[in-house]
Amino acid sequence: MAPQAAQLDHLAADRERMVERQIAARGVDDQRVLDAMRQVPREAFVAPGFEEFAYEDSPLPIAEGQTISQPYIVALMIEAAEVRPGDRVLEIGAGSGYAAAVLGRIAAQVYTIERHGGLARSAQDRLARLGYRNIDVRCGDGTLGWPQVAPFDAIIVTAGGPEIPESLRNQLTTGGRLVIPIGSLSDEQRLVKVVRDGEHAFHEEDLGAVRFVPLIGEHGWSEELPEESGAPIEAELRPPARSRPPTGLLRQTAERLPDLDDPAFGRLFDRFADARVVLLGEATHGTSEFYRARAAITRALIERHGFNIVAVEADWPDAAAIDRYVRHKSRPPEATPAFRRFPTWMWRNLEVHEFVDWLRAHNEGQEPAGRAGFFGLDIYNMSASIRAVIDYLDKVDPEAARVARERYGCLTPWQHDPATYGRAVLSAGYAKCEAAVVAMLRELLEQRLLYEAGDSEDFFDAAQNARLVASAERYYRVMYYGAAESWNLRDRHMFETLEQLLAWRGDGSKAVVWAHNSHIGDAAATEMGEMRDEINVGRLCRERFAETAVLIGFGTDRGTVAAASDWDGPMEIKQVRPAHRDSYERLCRDSGVSRFLVDLRQGRSAELRSSLLYPRLERAIGVIYRPETELASHYFEASLPRQFDAYLWFEQTRAVTPLPTTPRPGMPETYPFGL
Q1: Residue 327 has pLDDT above 70, yes or no
Q2: Do both 597 and 526 map to the same domain?
Q3: DSSP 269
Q4: End position of a domain, from candidates 237, 266, 285
Q5: Helix locations, 71-133, DSSP H
Q6: Is 513 a residue whose pLDDT tops 90?
Q7: Distance CA 598, CA 605 (A)
Q8: Do 388 and 351 reside in the same domain of the chain?
C-alpha cells in the first residue's frame, strides 16, 4: 500500500475511534451527529503541523489565537441544538470551518460568521475545496446574528458571552434552539440551551460548566479585554457539578510527611517492601520536591529492602554513563558526559547529582554483583545507541561491525534529528530502514553465547542499544500516523526494557522506576486509555506483576517549575498556576494539609477511596509548560484511586536546580556529568 493511502486508512480508523471513544462513549447518541463526525476529515481543518493530533480529545490552536474545538464539544452542542435534516442553522464563530462542515452534513443550509477576516476567508476556501455547497461564510460581528437570512431553526455559538444576546434570541424561529456559553472571563462559564416557545416566550436549560474563547462584539465582550481576565484560549466541556468534595476525609486520613531529609520519610514506604516493582511518578519534569522525594524513597528501598535497579525515564546510553559511575565500572575511553541533549535539566540537575553520588558511595561497600544500578528506559537517543552497538562490535567482531555500519547507514541522515525520518518515509523515494535494523538486532542476539563469553554486561548493553535503535526506528516512523500508536510503542519499549533488566539481574531483583505520572499511573483509569486506546508502563506492570507492582503518583498546587515553552527551547523557571477548581489537586489543596501521603489500595482508607473514585481533572506538566493554555494542554480526566496505589502531595514546590552543560573555564571535566 502506498504511504499516502496507508495514512488515509489510518486517519479513517482514528476518526472512527474518536467517534466511538470520545463522543458516543460519553453519551452523545444522536445517530445523525455521530455519522456526520465520521464523515468530516478533521485533519483538513487543523493548523499545518497538527494533523497527527487531529483526533485527540482536545481543542487545537489555529490562526488569530483561536482554537478548533474539542471533538466531543462539537458533537455535544450540535446534539443539544437538535439539528435535523431540513434545518437552517446559524453558527457564530466559524474558526477553521470544522463545526460548520459537521453541521453541513446534517442541516439543509448552514450560515456561519467569523469576526477574523483571515479565518473567514480560509474557512470559505477550505469548505469549497472539500465540496460543501450548503455553507455560507461571512466576516462580521457574530453577536448581531445574520438578520437578512433569519429566522433559524438552530443557532450555535462557539464563544462565551457575558449574557445571551437578544439579537440571537429574536432570530430563532418558534421552536428554535440556541446553544451558547455564558459567564465571566475569569471564572465559570455555563453552557446554556435556549428554546423559543412563542413570540415572546423562551425557556432555558443548563448543560454544564465550560471554558470558551470570549465572544467579542456589540452584544458580547469588548475588543479590549482586561489583562487580568484570565480568558482561556481553549474550548472544553467540564463535568457537571459533583457531590461535596471529600476534603474533610482527606484531612482526616492523610499521613503527614516529615522533612524530606528526615529518615522517617523513607520509612513511610516500608509498607511496599515486598513489591517487585515500585513506580514513583512526578506531576512535572522540573520540580525539586519530586526528585528529592523519589531519591529518599529509593534510598530506603535499596538500603532496607534489597532493591537493586533504579530505572528512569531517560535514554539508555546516557543512563549507562551514570550506571558505570555508580557501580564503579571503568570509564570507556570514548565516553562522553551524560544528558547533554534537550531537555538537559530533566536529569542533569543538582537533585539527581546528589542521589547519584549517594548511590556510588552506597555501592562502594557492596560486592560487585550486589550493587544497585542506574538504567534508562527511554527511546530517544538513537544516534548514541547506534554508536554504542558499533563500538561494541568493533571490539568483539569487526566483520559484524562492518555489517552494522552498512545497515544503520540508512538512518545516518536522520541520526541527529530522527523525527525527520518519520516525515521522510511518508514520501515516495525513501525506503524504510526497519528490515535492516531488525536484522542487526536479530543477528546480535543470535551471537549471544559467543559474545557473552567475553563480557556479559557489555553484551547486555550492546543488545539493549540495538533494541532501542529498532524501537526508535518504528517510533519515528509511526509518529506521523498517530499519537496513540507512537505513545504505545514508546511505553511498551520502556516496559520491555524494565523486564529485560529484571531478568538480567536475576530472580531476586527488585526495581524502582522514576517516570512521569502519565507513564507510571494506570492508563486504563484515565482518558488516555478510555478515550485514546493508550497503554503505559503502569498498566503493563499491573498486568505483568499484579499486586507486586506499586504505582505511586505525585502532585502539587503551585510554585515554580523548570520547563520550556517549545520543544528544543531554552529552559525557563515558570510559575505554576494554582490548580483548577475541578481537579484532584484542588481537593488536596483545600484539605489544608501541605504535605501528605495517602494509601489508595483496596482495603485501606475505604471511605476516602470511594469518595475519590469519580473522575476529576488531573494536571500533567512535562518538559513543555504553557500556562496560558493550561486547561487544554495540561489537564486530563482520571480516577485517582484506580490510577495509583498511593499519592504524595506537596502543596507548594520549587524548580529543580539545573547543572551546566559545559565545565567552568579552567576546570577539567569530571565524570559522569562533565562538570
Answers
A1: yes
A2: yes
A3: T
A4: 237
A5: 71-80, 98-104, 117-129
A6: yes
A7: 8
A8: no
34 and 115, same domain (yes or no)? yes
Are 372 and 386 found together in one domain? Answer: no
Distance CA 76, CA 82 (A): 10
**pTM above 0.70?**
no
> Considering 207, 237, 267, which residue would you say is the last residue of a domain?
237
Active site residue 243: no
The CA distances from residue 200 to 88, 195, 292, 351, 377, in Å, are: 21, 11, 64, 67, 66
Q: Kindly state whether residue 289 falls inside one of the protein's structural domains.
A: yes
What's the chain's Rg over C-alpha atoms? 27
Hey, what's the cell of 427?
A: 514520501
Tell whether omega for the bond before 343 is within 30 degrees of 0, i.e. cis.
Answer: yes
Total domains in the chain come to 3
pLDDT tens string 368-426: 999 999 999 987 665 565 656 666 666 666 676 666 565 555 444 444 444 443 444 44
Indicate whether 528 and 618 sit together in one domain: yes
Do residues 498 and 603 both lie within one domain? no
Q: How many CA atoms lie within 13 A of 530 on its CB side?
A: 16
Q: Are 618 and 275 in contact (CB under 8 A)?
A: no
As a whole number of angstroms, the distance between CA 618 and CA 610 comes to 17
Q: Are residue 514 and residue 646 in the same domain, yes or no?
A: yes
Residues 549, 275: contact at Cβ < 8 Å?
Answer: yes
Q: How far apart are CA 415 and CA 392, in angstroms?
A: 19
Query: Residues 69, 167, 605, 611: which is the catalytic one?
Result: 69
Residue 667 is assigned to a structural domain of this protein: no
- Rounded Cα distance, 317 and 374, in Å: 11
Give the CATH number for residue 27.
Answer: 3.40.50.150
Whether the CB-CB separation of 160 and 215 falls below 8 Å is answered with yes
Question: Is the Cβ–Cβ distance between 343 and 623 less than 8 Å?
Answer: yes
> CA-CA distance, 275 to 549, in Å (whole number)?
6
The set of cell numbers assigned to 235 is 474550548
Distance CA 655, CA 397 (A): 46
Residue type at 508 in one-letter notation: G
Mean pLDDT across the stretch 617-633?
A: 88
In a domain, 670, yes or no: no
Q: Which residues contact 203 (CB under 8 A, 6 or more apart)?
A: 194, 195, 197
Give the Cβ contact number of residue 79 at 10 Å: 18
Same domain, yes or no: 76 and 168: yes
Q: Which helix (H) or strand (E) holds 370?
A: none
C-alpha cell at 413: 541522515
Q: What percent of the chain has pLDDT over 70?
A: 78
Q: Which domain holds residue 322?
A: 242-377+510-661
Task: Return d(Cα 42, Cα 54) in angstroms, integer.
Answer: 6
Residue 674 within any structural domain of the chain: no
Given pLDDT bands bounded at 50, 70 and 90, which one contains residue 309? very high
